[in-house]
Every structure is written in C-alpha cells, then in structure tokens.
Amino acid sequence: MRIRPYRAEDQDAVLALIADDRLTGQPETTAAMLTEALAGYSPTESDQWAALDVPRTAVAHDPAGRVLGAASYTTRSSDQEGFVLWLHSGEDLPVASALIDAALADLGPRTVHAFAFASALSLGLQGLPVRSRPATRKALESVGFSGRDQCSYLHRHLRELPHVPESRTYPIADVQTSDQPPGRQLYLRDTDGALIGEAALGEPVDGIGVLQWIEIGAAHRGRGLGGNLLTQCCDLLAGNGGHELIAYLPEDPPRDSRLDQPAAGHLLATQGFEEIDTLCTFTRGPV
C-alpha cells in the first residue's frame, strides 16, 4: 500500500468510499460537494473553514493503483494547530492507520484535531460517527488521539411522526425566512406577543431537513406545545419537498446556550426520533 496526493481521476473512487460510510438521514455526496471539501469550503461552519489553510488530500492505493482510502488535512495559521478534516477508508484499519500516519508525518509536531468541523461532504456532521466507524476510531486512538462526545445524531421519517393535536391556545407559529443558515425560523407567541417557543429548520437537501433548534420556555412546558411546534416544523418541511428530518443534540451545550438539553432530548424521543450514532471529535497533543 502506498500514499500519494489526490488526483482528479480519483474522484469516482473517493465518492464510492464516502457513499459506503453514508449514514441514515444524510444526502448522497455529489462531485460538487467533494470539490468544495477539497477546496476547504463548507456551507456549515463556514467561518471556521475560512480560518484554515488550503487542505492537502492524500489517497492510499494498492500496487495496481486501486484507491483504498482518502484523507484530507490542513493547518490553521492563527495558532499553528493541525486538523484531519475527513477520512474514508472502507473501515479498513490498516488503510485508515496509513492515512492518519501520513497526515501526522506531513503536519509535523503540533496539536492535531480530527473531525472537528462539519465538512461539505455531509449535512452538518460535526464529528466522527463512532459506532458506525470503529476502525477509524481505533486508528485515531492507537496513535494518541483522545475522543470527546459532541452530540447525538437523530433521525426521523416525516411519514412516521406521531400526530399531535393542535394546541388550542397557541396553534400557529409565526414563520420567518433566514439566510444564515438558509431555512425558516418558527416562533410561538403568547396572546400578549411574548415569545414562548421557537424552532429553526434548515432548507431541505435531497428531501432531508435539519432541525437546528427547538425550545419551549420552561414556564410553558407540559402543555403539548413542543410537540405542536415540532409538528408545524414537519408540515413546513413536507411542504418544501422534505421527507426526512435529522437533529443534532449536543452532549454538553455551552454555558451561554439557551438549549435545555434534557428537555429537548425528551421531546425528540417522545416524537419518535431514533439515535443513529454519537458524533465525536478527537485531539492529539504534540509528539
């Protein structure tokens, strides 16, 4: 097995490797998405990506030239830290290990993060889905990377969402269009106009929408408003051609976050969302 830089003719083989790792609720990765990832652009966390240097992408191949895996990595000039941005190897441990070793050798002695940002190859996957990618996880940990759980990745088909009766008090949410990120904001208000609940819904990609945010004020819970608001999100998504909904539930929201993680988790569980995987990021100190 040998490692060399990515070439344009590797595109189809790399797309096939990415497709093999595709999770439920993720759109098919297209050539255009791969081109964006290779260039170091992502529609998700675009500010983080803009701070990175131009990525380098390597492929592993066998003696016959068949592509076995690919990995993209880079540095950040502001702090000189390194990043393994994405890696796909058919979950072949020797291939994953060879690609990680090559990336680390090229990056040199510095702190390196892996799977820290959501790339253009996916719909917001910030982290490695560790249950689905055990070989990649093992390859990282075997060379000193430590993992940290970031969030639960949840999925639901719209046709299977339970019917939630309309709340007689607050049946209709105000809907506003948002540009960053593209999608819709839904607001539930009291009769005096005070905000009591809100949700953010991304524009569907290949019929898949992202529930970016949903929250009901603590004083208004227990009245079915969360389920009602989620139903309105689903109706709105279906009206825009969506048929699947995914959500990312942080394991440890930032202190300044308004998200009530237990309440949001309970709501999604009662509305039939299934946890597909846990997303983890990894860090390795200078060696």
Automatic annotation (TrEMBL):
Domain N-acetyltransferase: 130-287
Keyword hit for Repressor: no
Gene3D superfamilies per the UniProt record, alphabetical: 3.40.630.30
NAD listed as a keyword: no
Keywords: Transferase
InterPro entries linked to this entry: Acyl_CoA_acyltransferase, GNAT_dom
Protein name: Acetyltransferase (GNAT) family protein
Species of the source: Kitasatospora atroaurantiaca
